[in-house]
Amino acid sequence: MENQKTALITGGTSGIGKELAKLFARDNYNLIIVARDQTELDSTKAELETSGVSVQTIAKDLSDMEQAKALCSEVTQRVDVLVNDAGMGVYGLFKDNELERELGIIHLNICATVILTKHFVRQMADRGEGKILNLGSVAGKLPGPWQAVYHATKAFVLSFTTAIREELKDSGITITALLPGATDTDFFNKAGMQDSKIVQDKEALSDPADVAKDGYDALMAGADRMISGFKNKVEVNVSSLIPDSNVAHTMYEQQKPVEQK
Hints:
Elements: E1 6-10, H1 15-26, E2 30-35, H2 38-48, E3 55-59, H3 65-74, E4 81-84, H4 99-127, E5 130-135, H5 148-167, E6 173-179, H6 187-190, H7 197-200, H8 208-221, E7 225-227, H9 230-239, H10 244-255
Parallel strand pairs: 1-2, 1-4, 2-3, 4-5, 5-6, 6-7
Helix pairs in contact: 1-8, 3-4, 4-5
């Protein structure tokens, strides 16, 4: 057990984060999983420990900057892999959404990612090795009416990841961005997005296990980014060829409520 590596995963009790945790456990990584709900943490811990690895749980609300900083202080063991998976969104027109809810999204999706990355990358740099996986989204490549703040936070994550990857290229540390499209997780329910056209077509949603496998393989290969899913790759490539205003209109139509004509 002492020779095993350790992965820290935020948002590790559901969706893509949980599927990533399963892949790390399969490959004999000890785990530190972070989420808000201790009951969900305990349940996930019991499930993952059947793989024979050690699982530590830490309950934190990473949209609270002091709790994000406290997490860094509380993790005293070596972290070989950091996975910044925790994230959230809110559905609706920007003028109508609650400011504090949107600021919470910025704090979680952007600020917590910066805080944890800075803390653990410094430790990795001292050792000359380490891996980081940041959960971006194809949303970061597409202006997103009805989710304007969420899409903007994921644009930050992609730009941030790409920039510090270049800074770290000779350090022995690799940093990878995973860009999934719409995925069958609880994200849409928590974001209040069930009425959106893009969510209504369940068959179009990606399987979180498939997305996690794409991201895990890219991370282990030291790749710079992984757009998960052929359809998402096509959408991103096409969007780069047309004006952003046209892309925004297309996203408006895809994400608007089904009852709105």
